[in-house]
Design a protein that fits this description.
53% of the residues lie in helices and 17% in strands. The strands form 4 sheets. Strands 4-3-7-6-5 form a 5-stranded antiparallel sheet, with helices on both faces. It is rod-shaped. A hairpin with a 2-residue loop joins strand 3 and strand 4. Helix 2 (8-57) packs antiparallel against helix 4 and helix 6 runs parallel beside helix 11 (431-441). By secondary structure, the protein is an alpha+beta fold. It has helices at residues 2-5, 8-57, 103-116, 156-204, 222-270, 276-307, 320-330, 332-337, 356-373, 423-426, 431-441, and strands at residues 58-61, 64-67, 83-88, 91-95, 120-125, 131-139, 147-154, 316-319, 341-345, 351-354, 379-387, 390-396, 445-448, 457-462.
Length: 470
């Protein structure tokens, strides 16, 4: 039993039975109360009516009460047994035959009625131990000692009726509790069946089965919401694992290529003695590959920190004009070697709150792409302007632009438009993904504007107050 109540189904059944039991207790109490009140009112009405009938048969002759009949009747005209007595300070003046109430009891009721100067009610036991309901009312006399009429009737039958009703209600309540508990057990099983199906599927799913979905027919309520939520979670996990697999594969490829080149250069240099110039050439080649590996490791580290929510910008006030001119000047020499001109357009004044090291990395990535893709004799524009309470930094070139089929994966990791691009010429394809992560860490966005006449235009939106976005 303890094990069953420890389950969700057991708790639902116990809760349902408890609610039903409380409802039955309230209903049974209401039924018994209504029955008791109705019978009590009926009993009291009989006593009042009989007292009036008896009062009309009493005559006051010279200060003495006399009966119009030879004796006080022991029942009503409807045949209900009612005992009566006329009591004064001198004792019992008249009473029904076989009066069940002792004289002392009758005298006490009479004194209470006289003290109250009105009718009084009492529940008591007669000389035979039978419960009775008594009614005492003062009688009006012209002279002589005051008298009180006491009428009473047995309520044993009424109590027996109430006890039989209570027993019947208890039996019916027990039957209803059993039926209600069984129905609750059955309904709980039907309600929890989809949950058990989901639990079974969750136990059987591994990282290779994330494409599976819960296919259970449920009503459009909370259970449907649970199924939809679970399927959405599986879809997100599937996408995350697929992204992780692609990331691992691409990272392995990017690391394997420079390591293979370094291994080839080293093995070639160690096969025989080389001249000074040959060793210098080998070391120069190794230096380039080490530099590429260092940049790749740095990018991967920043992306990992961004995924973990640990990429927190160290913000400070930056003069926008000075910052843009400084970045543009650093790329002037590289752009000149490609036959491209860097043009900086900055406001005369203005300051933004950001991490200069991270924002400089973003602009370096964007300028690197722009310079490499811009035709000779053209220009690359680096522009800054206030927008929406924050700042908008723009890098535009006049190159071939980004084909429409590549725009969806432009900011994905290891996404490169030129499949034949080498590390030396194009990098690992992490620049834009890293830049987008830095923008999100500042609470901003990085986007590629729709196709214009020519070239690509990247917009970096930075809010007035950096607030990381999830």
């Amino acid at each position: 039993m303890t094990r069953f109540l420890g389950t969700t189904r057991g708790r639902l059944v116990a809760f349902s039975v408890a609610i039903l039991a409380v409802a039955l207790v309230i209903a049974n109490g209401a039924v018994l109360g209504s029955l008791s009140l109705a019978e009590s009112n009926q009993s009291d009405s009989v006593l009042i009516t009989q007292s009036r009938v008896l009062s009309s048969t009493l005559e006051d002759v010279n200060g003495r009460l006399t009966l119009d009949a030879s004796d006080i009747p022991g029942e009503t005209q409807a045949g209900i047994a009612v005992d009566a007595a006329v009591v004064s300070s001198g004792g019992v003046l008249a009473q029904t035959q076989a009066q069940p109430l002792p004289v002392a009891t009758l005298d006490g009721l009479a004194r209470r009625s006289q003290a109250a100067k009105g009718p009084v009610w009492a529940d008591l036991m007669d000389s035979r131990g039978v419960p009775r309901r008594a009614y005492a009312v003062p009688l009006t006399t012209t002279s002589g000692p005051p008298a009180v009429l006491v009428v009473s009737r047995s309520v044993q039958e009424m109590r027996n009726t109430q006890q039989r009703t209570l027993l019947l209600l208890l039996v019916l309540s027990a039957i209803l509790l059993v039926v209600g508990g069984s129905l609750a057990y059955w309904l709980a099983g039907r309600v929890l069946r989809p949950v058990r199906t989901i639990a079974g599927l969750a136990r059987s799913i591994s990282e290779r089965d994330l494409h599976r979905r819960v296919e259970v027919k449920v009503p459009p309520d909370e259970l449907q919401e649970l199924v939809d939520t679970f399927n959405s979670m599986l879809a997100r996990l599937d996408a995350s694992f697929e992204s992780l697999r692609r990331f691992t594969s691409d990272a392995s490829h990017e690391l394997r290529a420079p390591l293979a080149l370094m291994r080839s250069e080293l093995e070639g240099a160690l096969t025989r003695d080389r001249s000074r110039e040959e060793y210098k050439r080998v070391l120069t080649a190794l230096h380039g590959e080490v530099d590429h590996l260092s940049r790749l490791a740095d990018h991967l580290l920043i992306l990992a920190r961004a995924d973990a929510g640990a990429l927190v910008p160290e913000t400070e006030d930056i003069d926008v004009a000075d910052f843009l001119h400084e970045v543009g000047a650093r790329w002037g020499t590289v752009a000149g070697q490609q036959g491209v001109r860097i043009e900086v357009s900055a406001p005369p004044s203005g300051r933004m709150r950001a991490d200069p090291r991270l924002i400089r990395r973003v602009l370096d990535n964007l300028l690197d792409n722009a310079v490499r893709h811009a035709p000779k004799g053209t220009r690359v524009v680096l522009r800054g302007s206030p927008a929406g309470g924050g700042w908008q930094l723009e890098v535009a070139d006049q190159g071939p632009g980004v084909p429409a089929e590549h725009r969806d994966r432009l900011f994905s990791r290891f996404a490169r438009l030129d499949a034949a691009r080498t590390p030396a010429g194009g990098g690992a394809g992490l620049g834009l993904a890293l830049s987008a992560a830095i923008a999100r860490a500042h609470g901003g966005t990085l986007e590629l504007l729709p196709d214009g006449k020519s070239g690509a235009i990247f917009l970096l939106h930075l809010p007035k107050t950096p607030t990381p976005r999830t």
